[in-house]
Design a protein that fits this description.
By secondary structure, this protein is an alpha+beta fold. It has two helices and 15 strands.
Length: 281
C-alpha cells in the first residue's frame, strides 16, 4: 500500500507541475503578443492639465490655452522653450497650428537636437513652418546655421490644425507625414542625413509677431508609420520582377489586433485542453 500511495502521490505532483507549466506557457505567449503590438511612448504632453510642467522657457512668452501650448507676442520677436528628449530612432508626433496674420511669423519644431552652452546654439534636425511652406532643416550651431534639406508647399494647412508625424530609422532616413494615421502612407518629405545621431531636447521656436500653437506631442522609440514599398516592375515580359527594396530600417508596422485576439484564443485553448486532460487522468 505504501508503494501504491507513493506512486499516486507522485502522479498528483506531476499533474500539478504540468498544470502550472501550461498556465505559464500560455501567459508568456500572451505577454509576447502584447509587447510586440505596443510601441513604447518615451514621453508625451497634451497640455490638458493646463500647464507646461517639464518644459523650460528659454525666452519669450508662453501659456497653455484651452489645452494647447501657444506663444504670444509681448516684447520680443523670438519665443523658445524646450523639453528633454533623447530619442533618435522612432516617431515624433504632434499637432501644430500656424496663424498667417503676420508675414514675418515662422515656427521651428526642432524634434531631435543637442543644445550647447549658448542659448541659440543647437545641433540637429527640425521642421520650419513659414506660411504654407514646410522645410526640413538642419541646424549646426548658431541660429544663422539653419539650412533647408527639403521643403514642400501645402496650401490646405494654413490657419488650421495639422497633425505631423516624423520617423527616423537607424540609417538616418527621415520621413515626414501630414494628417496620416494609417500604418502605410506617402511621406510629404523624405531626407537622409547622417550628420547627427544624438539628441537632448525637443525645441519649439516662434519667430516674429504672431501666435504659434502646438498640442498632443508624443515621442515614441519605434517607427509607427512605414511608407509603402514600390511595386515591382519588369523590363521585358521574359524577365523576372526586380527585387523590392525594404523601407526604412525594415521595422514592421505594429502587429494587427486580429493576431492578438487569435493568439489569445489559442493560448486559452491550450490551457483548457491541458486542464481537461489532466482531470481525465
Amino acid at each position: 500500500m505504501s508503494i501504491i500511495s507513493s506512486l499516486q502521490g507522485g502522479e498528483k505532483v506531476k499533474h500539478r507541475v504540468l498544470k502550472v507549466m501550461s498556465y505559464i506557457i500560455g501567459l508568456i505567449f500572451l505577454l509576447t503578443l502584447i509587447s510586440s503590438s505596443t510601441a513604447a511612448v518615451v514621453w508625451s504632453d497634451n497640455f490638458d492639465d493646463g500647464n507646461y510642467n517639464g518644459w523650460t522657457v528659454a525666452t519669450g512668452d508662453w501659456r497653455v490655452t484651452d489645452g494647447y501650448l501657444e506663444s504670444y507676442y509681448v516684447d520680443t520677436a523670438l519665443a523658445r522653450m524646450w523639453h528633454p528628449s533623447t530619442v533618435v530612432e522612432g516617431t515624433w508626433s504632434f499637432d501644430v497650428h500656424f496663424e498667417t496674420t503676420s508675414e514675418t511669423l515662422e515656427a521651428d519644431y526642432m524634434f531631435m537636437v543637442n543644445g550647447s552652452e549658448g542659448p541659440d546654439d543647437y545641433y540637429g534636425y527640425g521642421l520650419r513652418l513659414s506660411g504654407s511652406s514646410f522645410y526640413f532643416v538642419r541646424q549646426s550651431g548658431g541660429f544663422n546655421t539653419l539650412v533647408s534639406l527639403a521643403f514642400t508647399i501645402v496650401e490646405d494647412i494654413v490657419d488650421t490644425w495639422t497633425h505631423v508625424d516624423i520617423t527616423r530609422n537607424s540609417a538616418s532616413e527621415f520621413n515626414v507625414f501630414f494628417n496620416e494615421t494609417s500604418s502605410e502612407a506617402e511621406p510629404v518629405l523624405s531626407v537622409t542625413d547622417t550628420t547627427y545621431d544624438y539628441s537632448e531636447r525637443f525645441v519649439v521656436n516662434a519667430i516674429g509677431i504672431g501666435i504659434c500653437m502646438v498640442d498632443n506631442i508624443t515621442v515614441n522609440d519605434q517607427i509607427l508609420i512605414t511608407p509603402p514599398e514600390p511595386t515591382p516592375t519588369t523590363t521585358t515580359p521574359t524577365e523576372t520582377p526586380s527585387e523590392t527594396p525594404t523601407t526604412g530600417d525594415g521595422t514592421p508596422p505594429p502587429i494587427d489586433s486580429t493576431l492578438l485576439i487569435v493568439g489569445g484564443g489559442v493560448a486559452a485553448v491550450v490551457i483548457i485542453g491541458a486542464v481537461v486532460c489532466l482531470k481525465r487522468r
